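[audit] Reproducing an earlier prediction to check determinism. Same input, same settings, fresh worker. If the tokens differ from the archived copy the diff job will pick it up downstream; this log only records the rerun itself.
[audit] input (97 residues):
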Amino acid sequence: MSTNRVAHVRIHGRVQGVGFRAWTHHQAELHGLKGWVRNRHDGSVEAVFSGPGEMVEVMLKTCHQGPAGSLVQLVEPVEDADPELSDMDGFEVRKSV
């Protein structure tokens, strides 16, 4: 049985205007993860992934690939996210900040 993990990341590169948020939403649901994704005004994408540790790890590796048309340069850990975030329901696309 896997321990749950919460990862908070910023994804840099050509990640806006290429469907990255919708792709991330779809991938997170395929991996059974909870959390959220949003664009940032600096051109990066920010995301929180919560779920079984091995699935979060797979999702982070998947983010390095990105959808067609993207060019991911860096998936940067922001911080250890608050464990209470693991209580989120589903995965959502949030408004840009």
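[audit] rerun output stored. Observation attached for the diff report: The chain is about 25% helix and 40% strand.
[audit] end
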